[in-house]
Automatic annotation (TrEMBL):
Protein's name according to its UniProt entry: fumarylacetoacetase
Keywords assigned by UniProt, alphabetized: Calcium, Hydrolase, Magnesium, Metal-binding, Phenylalanine catabolism, Tyrosine catabolism
Catalytic residues of the enzyme: H137 (proton acceptor)
Pathway linked to the protein: Amino-acid degradation; L-phenylalanine degradation; acetoacetate and fumarate from L-phenylalanine: step 6/6
Chain sites annotated for binding Ca(2+): D130, E203, E205, D237
InterPro entries, alphabetized: Fumarylacetoacetase (IPR005959), Fumarylacetoacetase-like_C (IPR011234), Fumarylacetoacetase_C_sf (IPR036663), Fumarylacetoacetase_N (IPR015377), Fumarylacetoacetase_N_sf (IPR036462)
GO molecular function: fumarylacetoacetase activity; metal ion binding
């Protein structure tokens, strides 16, 4: 890791978006304006379309990757092109390179204040899969809803459990989340009723973006899995716990999860995260051969947090602090298991980690765990408390990696909850 990398652009010491990071996103100057690819640097967005048109990115192709409304074409271009653009940007914005910093006319065309642009969903999401890979989270949920002595089902330690969700309802940070309605069955009632969810919850997750198409019937070997991952985002995989409890047997969640999955607007590349690799938890029993990794540092040391801003307040309460490195199953294992039956991958597939919880109570990645299903409501500032999320509340998730004075962060995924729609279904 080159700790000497310094930009001529002024960047705060606690900024997520350093010259070591350079995450990719999609922006426009107006909400309905033309969208193109940008990179975050400090408080700015670098317009890659402008640099591409000026021939400043060192790309040996006539393909226009960055005058695009999503990142899929650039992601599909492959690792060699990603690295070439990364090196070009680090050189162009280095304090030691006068080329761009002295060309004030070009700088005005290239730099836009993040606060003054609109950020959009960075990829066209081809498919969405959500895993269930935190041992602490799975154990907590098993204790709540099953026998605590048998909290984990027999298959959990043998394979990365997951399900295929809805790609169409993946949204970007800033999108307002309408409280979902559905069937809810009270314990003392014989039949369910239709109502708005009263147990709306967040799930603190990350997700990785698939970088290569594969052929139907051809699994991805664990040795090649990392080559199929472009980068990572923060993910709030919203969940309606009361709808889920009634519907998830026998086939898993449906309406309780399909209404929204929100991601951060910036994709942090694996290349930027490489210095923060670390070992994941010891796996016992040893996984089957196709899930065994040679790469010992198969996880990343990424600090994660969740804040809640109650309706009517401006002050945020930090209610969760955890770390990605606690995840039992790695991203490579998740990807390989996803394809082992022959399922093909597509560029832009999004794969969620599952709720990320640590061992300490303040490291639980959902309100279901933090409040133990509302039996222990959280005490917030201004005398307020929460069991689950109320209308008007905002949830903010943040994440960053830091080592040897170098910081690489994800920014945030922030959403406010709105009241459920009034369906006015007739009573029969």
């Amino acid at each position: 890791m080159d700790t000497s990398l310094t930009s001529f652009i002024e960047i705060a010491t606690d900024s997520d978006f350093t010259l070591h990071n350079l995450p990719y996103g999609i922006f426009s100057e107006r909400i309905d304006g033309p969208r193109r690819v940008g990179v975050a640097l400090g408080e700015w967005v670098i317009d890659l379309a402008a640099l591409e048109q000026g021939g400043l990115l060192g790309l040996e192709t006539t393909t226009q990757y960055f005058s695009q409304p999503n990142l899929n074409a650039f992601i599909a271009a492959g690792k060699q092109q990603w690295s070439r653009v990364r090196r070009a940007l680090q050189s162009l914005f280095s304090k030691d390179n006068p080329k761009l910093q002295q060309d004030h006319a070009l700088l005005k065309k290239v730099l836009f204040a993040q606060a003054e642009v609109c950020l959009h969903l960075p990829i066209q999401v081809a498919g969405y899969t959500d895993f269930y890979s935190s041992k602490e989270h799975a154990t907590n949920v098993g204790c709540m809803f099953r026998d605590p002595k048998n909290a984990l089902l027999a298959n959990w330690s043998e394979l990365p459990v997951g399900y295929n969700g809805r790609a169409s309802s993946v949204v970007v940070s800033g999108t307002e989340i309408i409280r979902p309605s559905g069937q809810i069955k009270a314990a003392d009632q014989q039949r369910p009723t239709f109502a708005a969810s009263q147990k709306l919850d967040f799930e603190l997750e990350t997700a990785f973006v698939v970088a290569k198409n594969t052929s139907l019937g051809q699994p991805v070997a664990i040795e090649q899995a990392w080559e199929h991952i472009f980068g990572m985002v923060l993910l709030n995989d919203w969940s309606a716990r009361d709808i889920q409890q009634w519907e998830y047997v026998p086939l898993g969640p449906f309406n309780s999860k399909t209404f929204a999955s929100a991601i951060s607007p910036w994709i942090v590349t694996l290349e930027a995260l490489e210095p923060f690799r670390t070992a994941g938890p010891q796996q016992a029993p040893q996984p089957l051969a196709y899930l065994q990794e040679d790469h010992q540092n198969n996880s990343f040391d990424i600090n994660l947090s969740v804040e809640i801003i109650p309706v009517g307040e401006t002050q945020a309460d930090v209610i969760c602090q955890t770390n990605f490195k606690y995840m039992y199953w790695s991203m490579a294992q998740q990807l390989t298991h996803h394809t082992v039956s022959g399922c093909n991958l597509q560029v832009g597939d999004l794969m969620g980690s599952g709720t990320i919880s640590g061992a300490a109570p303040n490291a639980y990645g959902s309100l279901l765990e933090l409040t133990w299903n509302n039996t222990k409501p959280l005490q917030l500032s201004h005398g307020k408390s929460r069991g689950f999320i109320e209308d008007g509340d905002s949830i903010v998730m943040k994440g960053y990696a830091e080592k040897d004075g170098i910081r690489v962060g994800f920014g945030e995924v922030r959403n406010q909850v709105l009241a459920a729609l009034d369906f006015n279904f007739p009573v029969k």
